Structures are given as C-alpha cells and as structure tokens.
Amino acid sequence: MPGPIRKWLLSYAVTAVIFAGVDAVWILTVVNNQYRSQIGDLLADRFNLAGAVLFYLIFVAGIVHYGVRPNDAGATLQSRVTGAALYGFFTYATWALTAFAVLKGFPALVAVTDIVWGAVVCSGVTALTAVILRLRPRPPAD
Predict the structure, then answer these.
(1) Predicted TM-score (pTM) of this structure
(2) Where are the alpha helices (DSSP H) in the chain?
(3) What contacts 24+ positions apart, CB below 8 Å, involve 118-122?
C-alpha cells in the first residue's frame, strides 16, 4: 500500500477512536440530559445504529480531510485545528439550524450547544490526533 494511503488510513483510525471516545462521553454526560429535557418528544425510543455508524464513518473522514490532513507536510498545527474547527462549526450548524428552522419548538439552546460542540470537538480531536501521530515511532528508512 502506498505511503500516503497508509498514512491517511492510520490518521483515520486514530481520529475515529478519539472522536468516538470523546463523543460518547459528551453524549452520556451532556447531550442525553439536554435532549431529553429540551426535545424529548422528538427522540426515538432507540437510536438507529445504521444511521449512527454511517454518521461516524463519514464525519471522521471529514475531520481527517479538513483537519488532520496527514499528507500535507506544510500544514501547521494551528492551520489543522482551524480547519477542523470550521468543519465542525459548519457541519453541526447545518443540522442544528435546519432543525431550528423547520422543527416546531426546536430550542435555540440545543442548536447553539450543538454548533459550539461541533467546533470544539473537531478542533480538539484534530489536535490530539496530530500530536499522537507525531509521537509515534517512525519505521527505519530503507
């Protein structure tokens, strides 16, 4: 497998593990309570596993592409984190503001919380991924 593809896939795997862990903590400690109290009547009794898996697979690819950018040697940590924050802001804003616009009684608090979370989690995951990937041992040169 060519080096750039291997590097991208490793970045994807590291990003996925970090994002899933951080997002799980966020969901269990903040979102469950907020969603149940603010939009409980809109929630399904059980979450859709296929939808959740597809979201994570696609979303993590976006974090790697716009934030981590493993094959962009010239990217600074600041530019990576900024790209990730913008990606998180725009993607979460798309969902939150659409819901705010079309769902009856969708609270502004939920929309704002989700948008801020998108920017924060993407930038944090990108920074942590970039630091971890820099610290990993490099294979010896051929």
Answers:
(1) 0.91
(2) 3-26, 32-39, 49-63, 77-102, 108-135
(3) 118/88, 118/89, 118/91, 118/92, 118/93, 119/85, 119/86, 119/88, 119/89, 119/92, 120/85, 120/88, 121/19, 121/22, 121/23, 121/26, 121/88, 122/63, 122/67, 122/84, 122/85, 122/87, 122/88, 122/89
Contacts of 116 (CB under 8 A, 6+ apart): none
Q: Which residue has the tokens 């940590």?
A: 77
- CA 74 – CA 121 distance, rounded (Å): 23
Amino acid of residue 97: L
d(CA 80, CA 69): 7
Q: Is the pLDDT of residue 93 over 90?
A: yes
pLDDT one-digit tens code per residue, 52-81: 999 999 999 999 999 999 999 999 999 999
Question: CA torsion sign, 124 to 93 to 75 to 56?
Answer: positive
| Statement: residue 136 has pLDDT above 80 | no
Q: HSE of 54 in the Cβ direction (CA atoms, 13 Å)?
A: 5
